[in-house]
Specification:
Blueprint: E1 4-9, H1 21-30, E2 35-42, H2 48-56, E3 61-66, E4 73-79, H3 82-93, E5 101-106
Parallel strand pairs: 1-5
Antiparallel strand pairs: 2-4, 2-5, 3-4
Amino acid sequence: MQKTHQAFHLNSRVCLELSSPEAEKKRCQDLKTPERAVLLINTTLADSPKVISDLKKIEGVIEVYHLKGRYEVIAVVQAESFEKLKQTLFNRIRSISNIKATLTLTLMEDQVLAK
């Protein structure tokens, strides 16, 4: 089965394709808050415990939950820069063999609605 991955950027990160890499790098370096993303993960029910175990071993994964519904696992990932966040998502998490598909939601750093 072919893996599918989607990324939806809920803040100004969507301009990555529209701005120069140098401008984006400088803008990301100017941010003082860590970059965070929520990753919704499709796997099989039988593979969920292994995926959760693998996720907990990855630096930057700060929360992991088992779900019932369309997705089996949700993870919150944090990094000091957007580039490091992308590296964690693409190089570490999406390389886990039992993951069928992911949906990535980048969190807005200044839009906390409730605590």
